[in-house]
Design brief:
Helices cover about 70% and strands about 0% of the residues. With about 170 residues, the chain is an all-alpha fold. Helix 1 runs antiparallel to helix 2, helix 1 packs across helix 3 and helix 4 packs antiparallel against helix 5. The protein is globular, with a radius of gyration of 18 Å. The relative contact order is 0.16.
């Protein structure tokens, strides 16, 4: 690990959590493709396009996470069976309503955010600034995406919280 100036025993927990994240992203990616292909109803055009945007973004993240693992001088897991086994995100039926699909994705975002936090924690302990920087950007983007999906799922008649903090 000479060129990284990190101790191998400190990097291994980072790599372990990155591999879990990689598995999570793979199952999430396929779920987004599933929903993209199978969306029906009056929200078809909006969600068909949104799911495609999301799976294209996830595909890039999959590559970046795998390459980060390789940069840390380890091998990423790469078998579909391993992804299914390791990931906390589970496959989904294609026979869901648009609201059920969005709710399912929001639930997956909670899992992804938990895993991203674990990666950040391990990376901080290893003084792995490269991983912290990469994952920090993912967290910001995922939080925003979750907010937008949550807003989409609300009835426009629902009241907004109008409490202001002074």
């Amino acid at each position: 690990m000479d060129y990284l100036n990190m101790e191998n025993q400190k990097v291994l927990p980072v790599v372990t959590e990155l591999n879990v994240l990689l598995a999570d992203y793979h199952v999430y990616y396929q779920k987004l493709r599933n929903f993209h292909w199978n969306i029906l109803g009056k929200n078809f055009f909006d969600l068909h396009k949104k799911f495609e945007e999301m799976y294209n973004d996830t595909r890039l993240k999959i590559d970046e996470v795998a390459e980060r693992i390789i940069t840390l001088k380890y091998h990423p897991i790469s078998k579909l069976s391993d992804y299914i086994e390791v990931s906390r995100i589970k496959e989904s039926s294609p026979l869901l309503s648009d609201k059920e699909m969005v709710a399912n994705i929001i639930d997956d975002h909670k899992i992804l955010l938990e895993q991203l936090s674990k990666v950040i924690d391990r990376a901080n302990k290893a003084s792995d600034e490269g991983t912290v920087d990469l994952i920090g950007a993912y967290i910001r983007q995922l939080e925003k995406s979750t907010w937008m999906l949550n807003a989409w799922s609300k009835d426009t008649k629902e009241e907004l919280n109008t409490t202001f903090v002074e």
